[in-house]
Specification:
6-stranded mixed sheet, Nucleotidyltransferase, domain 5, 16 strands, 28% strand, 2 domains, 359 residues
Length: 359
């Protein structure tokens, strides 16, 4: 197994995704190459990871300081030199070691391919993979659910979105994923020498470009409602990242993953704690259910769903100036209109309290 590490300085367009959404979280951009689509019969042959080490304001060259960020990046490539079972296991173990250092990984369709593929291959090799695994932010899922790009583009493949966003000139590789598989088999059968090395470099370049282009695509979130996207696709939060938020009747349901040290825990609603918590150690998940107050103003006005901040023991002063926060109430929903930004800010406070309660 070959592990290559490269340091880069990259000027990136300023992104709400990196600057606001992830905050101080340690972020990496991940992409894998495999011998096929089924993790039952196919292998991981290459794992790429671009880690953001630091971000600083940069001058973009046109005098508009602050519109660009200077990013210090560490680029990892884990390549299976021999294609054997032991080589794949070594690759996965080393790859996981780097991934677990992160709080967030950004992928493109990683929720349905990269991450499940990694998990199944790790489990096949009896490697623990879920403990400490970072929150997976799937940019493809966000674009699919929270943007109008589906109506503008023939498809939402990563390279199609890159072209739309004007990033095609920054891509240097010229092969497809299918080409990468064919080249890998050619690499395994090729005799050692410059020709074999050239094939390997072509495969690595393809993966490296996918990771770097994903990093450059992060600012595309400015073309969508980021907070609505966070509501639909989840967001990272310490050891309890959120996977889904939903309104069900007179309840706000927050569900997610126990990232580390999963436990079994149940806590039912009481006057002192106006919410219910359920945690499952086996499935590493959790759910918090909060009751809402329904108010019908009449006169053909939409029904309001309210959350009473005064019923919570933790400090909520930091969010009382946010939109849809009136007096002691958050107007969670007014008909179909949801106060995404304010509710998400509240949920972060709530999860801090849950973390303290369940330690």
């Amino acid at each position: 197994m070959l592990h290559r590490v490269e340091k880069r300085i990259e000027n990136l367009e300023k992104s709400r995704l990196l600057a606001e959404y992830f905050g101080d979280a340690k972020v990496g951009f991940l992409d894998i190459e495999t011998t096929g689509l089924s993790p039952k019969t196919c292998k991981v042959i290459l794992g790429g990871l671009v880690v953001v080490e630091s971000l600083e304001q940069s001058d973009n060259g046109s005098g508009e300081a602050g519109e660009m960020l200077s990013a210090e990046l560490t680029c990892h490539e884990f390549f299976s030199d021999f294609g054997s079972k032991d080589d794949e296991k070594a690759l996965l173990a080393a790859y996981l070691e780097e991934i677990r250092k992160l709080d967030v990984i950004v992928t493109y369709n990683g929720e349905h391919f990269d991450v499940p593929f990694l998990f199944e291959r790790c489990e096949k090799h009896r490697l623990e993979c879920r403990e400490g695994f970072p929150f997976n932010f799937d940019l493809y899922r966000l674009l699919k659910t929270s943007s109008d790009l589906r109506e503008l583009l023939p498809n939402l493949k990563q390279k199609t979105v890159e072209r739309y966003y004007g990033l095609w000139p920054t891509r240097t590789d010229e092969i497809s994923g299918e080409d990468s598989v064919n080249l890998y088999y050619a690499y395994l059968s090729h005799k050692p020498g410059p020709g074999k090395d050239a094939i390997r470099e072509t495969i690595i370049l393809h993966n490296s470009d996918d990771c770097m282009q994903l990093c450059r695509l992060a600012p595309i979130v400015k073309k969508l409602d980021l907070y609505k996207g966070m509501w639909q696709t989840g967001f990272p939060f310490a050891t309890l990242p959120v996977k889904k938020m939903a309104l069900k009747g007179d309840k706000l349901i927050v569900s997610g993953i126990q990232r580390k040290n999963a436990i079994d825990f149940k806590s039912f609603e009481t006057p002192e704690q106006p919410y219910e918590i359920r945690m499952d150690r086996r499935f590493r998940n959790y759910e918090v259910s909060l009751p809402l107050k329904s108010v019908n103003p009449g006169h053909e006005m939409d029904t309001l769903k309210l959350l009473d901040l005064e019923t919570f023991s933790f400090d909520t002063d930091s969010i009382k100036d946010l939109p849809q926060c009136e007096n002691q109430y958050i107007i969670v929903a007014e008909g179909e209109k949801v106060a995404y930004k304010t509710v998400i800010a509240f949920v972060k406070l709530l999860l801090s309290a849950v973390e303290l309660q369940t330690k």
